[in-house]
Amino acid sequence: MSRDHAAETREAREPLSCSSVLAGGGTLYAATMGSGIYRKREEHRWERISTPEMDGLTVNRLVLAGERLHACTSRGLYIFDGEEWETEELELPVFQYRAEGGCLYACTTHGLWCSHGADWGSAAFADRKVYDIVNVPQYLILGCEKGLALYDRFSSAWMEFDLGAGVTSVAVCHGRLIGVSELGELVVGTPQHGFERYRYPGLFLFSIAVRGGQPLLCSDRGLYRAAWLGGRIALRPVETTGPVTDVDASGERLYLATLYEGIRQLDGMLPG
Length: 272
Fold this sequence. Notes:
It comes from Paenibacillus pasadenensis. This is BNR repeat domain protein. The protein has 272 residues and is mostly beta strands. The chain has a domain at 1-88. Helix content is 0%, strand content 59%. It has no helices and 28 strands. The protein has strands spanning 2-5, 18-24, 27-32, 37-41, 47-48, 59-65, 68-73, 76-80, 84-87, 94-100, 103-108, 111-115, 121-124, 130-135, 139-144, 147-152, 157-162, 167-173, 176-181, 186-190, 194-198, 205-211, 214-219, 222-229, 232-239, 244-250, 253-258, 263-266. Strand 16 and strand 17 (157-162) form a beta hairpin. The protein is globular.
């Protein structure tokens, strides 16, 4: 791993156009559109923590694993220990990162890569982009550029679902897989009954996140909550004042990464 030192004098300003938000360990993190990565500790002001060497990176997601911040970027995986940045020896654009069950997973432009604490190696689908990953007891679920791929641990085999569009964000809630396609559609279903794509006129979905047991959808018109009514899925508005690119939660509070208003805060939106 190589190391980059954070700037001696940290730039203190509020991040504006944000692509990702992360709340954890009493700290709020935000990735901006081309202007670096910031953090805010409790009552302190925002401070830029990315280094000049990281300028120009596209930050796809921020992930907290243990006590270290992981930035999935267009130039690989960066890790921040609170003072310094390290780069993993994975020289591929990374969309998502997970550390589960003693294994490290990275979703990249050349498939799923894994590490057990040493070197990284290609694990599956090197011929395509893998955007997102969810790990549940029976399945390892991937959102790919051709649709969905599920590894069934009972049969030790992959199942592929070609949906005619890439699935860039996936989650599991209430026994259903919910995803978002690269065309801004909602993807819903199960491996047993198949998956359907739903398009909502005038609404382009960016991603999904389950917070407080609730499926939340970020879109070009704001934040929505998915709910099942009479066996059908419906979207209920939570905050619709402008584009929301990402969402995270701490307690009953939601943090929204927005395209034009930086990080917004909504209180009392989740069960305590």
